[in-house]
Amino acid sequence: MKNLFTILFLMFTSILFAQEQAPNSNFELWTDQYTCDGWNNSIVVGTPPFSTTIYTAQRTANSFQGSYAVEMETQELLDYVIPGLFQLGEIIYDGQNISIVGGYPFTDRPMGISVFTKYIPVDNDTAMVIAYMTKFNSQTSTTDTIAATFYPIMDTIIDYTELLMPFIYESEETPDTLNIMFLSSNPFNPKVGSTLYADSLQLLYEISAFPTLALPATNVSDTSFTANWIPSPYSNEYILQLATDSNFVNTVTGFYNIIVDTFNYDILIPEEFQNYLNYYYRVQVKYGDTATSIYSNVIKVLPTYPTVSLPATEVTQNSFKAHWLSMPGASSYSLDVATDTNFTSFVTGYENLAVSDTFYLVTGLNETTKYFYRVRTIYQQGTSPNSNTIVVSTLPNNIDKIEKFSSYFIRNNQLYLYNLDENSEIIVYDVFGKVYYKTFTYSDEVIIPFGNSGVYIVEIKSQKNIFRNKFTL
Fold first, then answer.
1. Mean pLDDT across the chain, nearest whole number?
2. Are 270 and 250 a contacting pair, CB within 8 Å?
3. Of the N and C termini of the chain, which has fewer Cβ atoms inside 10 Å?
4. 441 shares a domain with 364
């Protein structure tokens, strides 16, 4: 026979030491398709009787466990793009601005949050999970933040995945209010159709190796960048991994499982691993000598590789067309034109000129003048170093355009030129504008030894004519 006093004692202590949770945290209780018990997702627009209620989330059977989950989709409504919004607080719309007030009465101090989510973004959108605990300050009549956490979801998540979010406490006070908020889009640039799902939320009260949140890289160049992550409130040691693939199969020598005691780290990519299109990093939190967290999210780094400037075309007495290679991921390019190789004397209007294409007609130049141009690639993550420099000379007044030379033949990787004007200068460039061969001839013929196979630009200059041909050997 069971002891009645033991049963009553166990019941009493379970109530006394129960750890608070958010209401309806498994999202199973719904009044209807759009009303989740304990949570808010509606905005009232207008004044009764002409008001309209907009619902920013709804019930879905596409759940992680149980019968239901919550689905939030960014919508275009009443000429506004409104992110899916689901939270414990109240949504207030005053006709111009949306604000969040209040939350759920709460008087505990959890370590963090666990929630299962999946996300289908549109056009590189970002979803957000935000949680904070506050307390009303009766002395100042303001609300003080006790703790907060957030998680930006920057990638597509096809299957439900657990997010672990540690609270960072700013005060030793006990809170009186909790708000947890889900947004299906970046509120400053929402994309219609981005959809976030959430299920099985739980407040955690024990340190169980919370992971950190990796943040986008900064100071990105073609050979280096700074890896960043949010500091853990429970540890000051981290394990950093760097690879050239998102599955971390091809790891970068010297940057795999290195122990770091800061929440950022400057990475200089080893020479043998340079020139990859992408790099990836992730971080673990190290708890003592034996325990580590699961991996953080993975950050993709796009190096800011410079473009390659190409020889100019359409050269006249006062203009030429500059060219360069298209770079993957480039948003635009920045063009410099100068009269010296060190770019201390820029041509007016051509210093850091923004260009959206891979060519630009440079005008307003002087005849018979040598000019230099270079290009930088503008990426979302930063600006590349300078490209190679191209030298171009505008035509003299007595020559209208550059012709193609027809008196030649190629044999055994050698170019035979004949019927040349007397006193001709011959310059051979590679496709990057680098001088491969240069000579001056007083006769009407010359032999150019190409040697290696490749693409070459041959320019012939005399007092009467300028010719330029491209040869592929």
1. 86
2. no
3. N
4. no
CA distance 14 to 337: 76
List, for residues 276-288, the tens digit of each pLDDT value.
888 999 999 998 8
Contact indicator for 229, 238 with CB cutoff of 8 Å: yes
- Asked whether residue 344 falls in the same domain as residue 413, the answer is no
In this structure, which long-range contacts are made by residues 341-349, counting pairs with CB atoms below 8 Å and at least 24 apart in sequence?
Answer: 341/372, 341/389, 341/391, 343/372, 343/374, 347/371
Q: Which helix (H) or strand (E) holds 44?
A: strand 42-45
Count of domains forming the chain: 4
Look up the pTM and report it.
Answer: 0.62
Are 50 and 156 within one domain?
yes
Q: CA–CA separation, 152 vs 149, rounded Å?
A: 10
Which of 247, 267, 301 is the last residue in one of the domains?
301
State whether the Cα torsion 379-331-251-256 is positive or negative.
positive
Beta bridge mates, 473: none
pLDDT at 334: 96
